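Course assignment 3, question 2. Fill in each field.
Student: A.L.
Task: Predict the tertiary structure for the chain below.
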Amino acid sequence: MPSDQELDAAIGRLCDAIAAHDQLYVAFSGGADSAFLAAMALDVLGPERVVAITAVSPSLAALERDDCAAFAAERDMRWIEVETDEMEQAAYRRNDGDRCFWCKDALMRAVVPLAGPSAVIALGVNLDDLGDHRPGQRAAAEAGAVFPLVEAGFTKAMVREASRRMGLSTWDKPAAACLASRIPYGTTVSVAVLGRVERAERALRALGFDELRVRHYDDTARIEVPTTQLADVVARHAEVVEAISACGYRYVTLDLAGLRSGNLNQALT
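Answer field:
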């Protein structure tokens, strides 16, 4: 947990980083990082100089899109949805190690014409993200995006604590990467597969499991939940199997290592 002094200093640096721009278009996924960045930008620049923009595609779960809408309404923030075309790109669908590059490339191509010459596009990347395989960051940087949380020295823990201070509803929201992150590299990304994953995760949430991933391996679903909830899944195995099987999976498995965000990136090492 960051000290009050550390957090106050980081918030001051973030305000300076945001104030350096006339207008910010914040790439807004509805997660803790982008929500915090959007809220801070709103406080620093005012509602006329900040736009939250959400990329809409089959890889965005409907629940996440709804969360974006609710947060924007809650903060009285200008919010725009843009359709992105990554699914039309063969480089994205083939799902190699650079898949995220093509996703962010599609986002930047959609947003840049909207933003205009005086606006800057900002992403909610924090220091902890820099240690993972994130080619999307490269695509965004090459297109001129900025990373104010990195400039200000924010870690994920600092984002959550600052968000809690501000009373943001997202302060403790579990990380929720795009649906394509559930598909192992080398397996083709398709609308049908993304839809199956989304239905399976929605079914588990309906059973009360809020923090989870359903990894897609053809006709096998590999469920990840925090290790503290493994016993709960086992205890309710009949309901879990029924719910996941109804989504089109023949085999339902539970990963005993628990939930690990980005763990499919291990295949690249």
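Instructor remarks: The mean pLDDT is 92. The CA atoms of residues 23 and 118 lie 7 Å apart.
Grade: pending
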